[in-house]
Amino acid sequence: MAQLTGKAVVAQSGGPTAVINQSLVGVVLESAKHARITGVYGAMNGVSGIVREDFVDLGQETSYNLERVAVTPSSALGSTRDKPDEKYCEEILQVFRLHDVRYFFYIGGNDSSDTARIVNEQARKSGYDLRAVHIPKTIDNDLMQNDHTPGYPSAAKFVAQAFAGINLDNAALPGVHVGVVMGRHAGFLTASSSLARVYPEDGPHLIYLPETPFVAEDFLMDVREVYSRLGRCVIAVSEGIQDRDGVPILSTLMDMGRDDHGNVQLSGTGALGELLTQQIKDRLGIKRVRSDTFGYLQRSFLGCVSEVDQHEAREVAEKAVQIAVAHDADGSVTIQRVGDYAVDYTLSPLHEVAARTRLMPMEFISRSGNNVTDAFRRYLEPLLGSGMPQAGALRSPRVKKLRG
Amino acid sequence: MAQLTGKAVVAQSGGPTAVINQSLVGVVLESAKHARITGVYGAMNGVSGIVREDFVDLGQETSYNLERVAVTPSSALGSTRDKPDEKYCEEILQVFRLHDVRYFFYIGGNDSSDTARIVNEQARKSGYDLRAVHIPKTIDNDLMQNDHTPGYPSAAKFVAQAFAGINLDNAALPGVHVGVVMGRHAGFLTASSSLARVYPEDGPHLIYLPETPFVAEDFLMDVREVYSRLGRCVIAVSEGIQDRDGVPILSTLMDMGRDDHGNVQLSGTGALGELLTQQIKDRLGIKRVRSDTFGYLQRSFLGCVSEVDQHEAREVAEKAVQIAVAHDADGSVTIQRVGDYAVDYTLSPLHEVAARTRLMPMEFISRSGNNVTDAFRRYLEPLLGSGMPQAGALRSPRVKKLRG
């Protein structure tokens, strides 16, 4: 394939993250360095903006404003849940032809890499020279071929800080607390709650992941054991916990809608937390049981970010542009860990990332199935960056009682 | 009354905050400066620790560890919801006599100031010389005689940052979002969501407070208007919204427990958010409607704090000790705003603060009843301190469409 000259289109897809705009700005600033890229358009709301021919000219942004946008969570271009079929992709290519677009950078998760793959194949079939490069992003951390994905470290930091606070709250006013964390198939984000622990009796005391079958009776026994030992219990639960047959616990509860990708809607409802607290109250007779469903805060909260995540989200986008222009290749840019701690970026074929899901490796999950291992904590720690606040605790000795 | 010599007991009560340990540390460090205070004991879990004679000797803490505890959210001594009656107070006094306790510093909200009042009156009746000083704390900001209360500014900062993120998320993936915020009677914390706005079309677009009667039909009309204008709508709702008769909207929904103070349990359940989203879906036919109930994160999240709040929480406790020792007086230390922006501390009689509730003044609520005024924003802004992150936005021009 020849090196191509023409415009670049960048778009954002799927759930927002704290650093997805770092990748957007990385594409814009890096593209400006390459003469072969004659302009950078942003498609509004992902692929849907391409077929609607709804572009903004990102070449007219100031560098100061771009840097302001880079540190702003959520997708500055807007997002979409559209999953293009063949006809949709044909429209995308029509628009690309019309605007002389030769570079397509799509920032998103596994659904988005699948979209990039389809557009890429369609272009090839129709004889239109196009570089399609997928730039990874997902708080779920579930993309194949990646050590981790941009967006995950910042969301993990939020979850860890949230559980650190909940643990302290629960210690002050004892009871059982259930915190429900995002993650449809992979438990990485729920597992990050373990980084909240400082002292031996700190919570979360129990962690339930989609990778391990959830058995209600075992769960209740676990809670009873912790509660009788400590007088309190903090529990982290993934929204995607499943029974032995792989059926989400939540979907057995309610008649829920599915999105355009056939995914069950697990977020935006507190039902799982309510169900579990009700079970604990009814079956264990514990009075003070509360749940919090973290919802959109964990992916969008303004002001909780890992600078490691910010740098990598920027870098992975710069590499995407460099690879597309200089190396004349398509694919998904993936993050590899080299040493402890540094990363490098490689190009993976789109079909190896597209529409597949990476789960927590077994060495990250405790044998009991209700916790994570030190190996996981070592994996996550460097990703959180600096400024992770640490909880303190009093160590004053008890005063001798004077009453008989 | 003569100046007293004896031990001090400090205790923490009610819902934890991000800065309640600043007040604890303020009492400990200030007490060490006064020879009349012969020791500082911390009562574990509020007044319940006193009657159980469960004290720690805070004089044996290092200053470094105290400063670590000061920046840790939640109540380091543990908390309680106990509301002492006469018999309970008699036991408190017995223990105080036994340990020669002459100074009682109780950090908490209006229920706690009422406890301090009862203990104070009982001591006087039984002829035991005791200084009882209430140190204000509540994220609800609903204490009489205070311009604002320690804990509120940090919780308000969390709520503002959360809504800034939700607004960006909602702009990227449009729909309706309902965020449910703590506050049983007073809407101050819900109102702080307004500080999230930067650009004219930023959410929250609608804010519902307990101070204004909530009428479902008006609510639905408001949502429809915003949604048809902007294609999206972000809503901040207090957990304590009430109907025209003062009945909490949530309590009309479910059979709920009440705590020892007769308060309905409004937190720890996502029911209000679910109800409102269901109404919007059913009645307005909008598909993408989500809710988040902020829960314990807003009062305990580790790492979201206003340094103004930290300083004031420390100062108000220092003043409490100074007043008790040097000025030989009982009461509640209250925060007064002097100038723009500085504060001073005064002593208010306990009965003026105890068990009463301060609501949002009318000039802080928009005439439409579904938003707040600029006066409120000017009131809150200096309390949030520095480091309030600002959202950025692209301003690239639209590209001309080439298709006919």
In short:
The structure is a homodimer of 404-residue chains. Chain A has 404 residues and is an alpha/beta fold. The first copy, chain A, has helices at 20-31, 47-51, 63-70, 86-98, 110-125, 152-172, 188-191, 216-230, 271-284, 297-300, 307-326, 350-353, 374-380, and strands at 6-12, 37-43, 55-57, 101-108, 131-136, 176-181, 206-208, 233-238, 289-293, 331-337, 343-348.
Give a verbal description of the structure.
2 copies of one chain form a homodimer. With 404 residues, chain A is an alpha/beta fold. Chain A contains 13 helices and 11 strands. Chain A has helices at residues 20-31, 47-51, 63-70, 86-98, 110-125, 152-172, 188-191, 216-230, 271-284, 297-300, 307-326, 350-353, 374-380, and strands at residues 6-12, 37-43, 55-57, 101-108, 131-136, 176-181, 206-208, 233-238, 289-293, 331-337, 343-348. In chain A, strand 1 (6-12), helix 1 and strand 2 (37-43) form a beta-alpha-beta unit. In chain A, helix 1 (20-31) packs antiparallel against helix 3. The longest helix of chain A is centred in the middle third of the chain and has 21 residues, at 152-172. The radius of gyration of chain A is 23 Å and the shape is elongated. The model of chain A is unreliable at 255-259 (pLDDT under 50). The interface between A and B is large, with 84 and 84 residues.
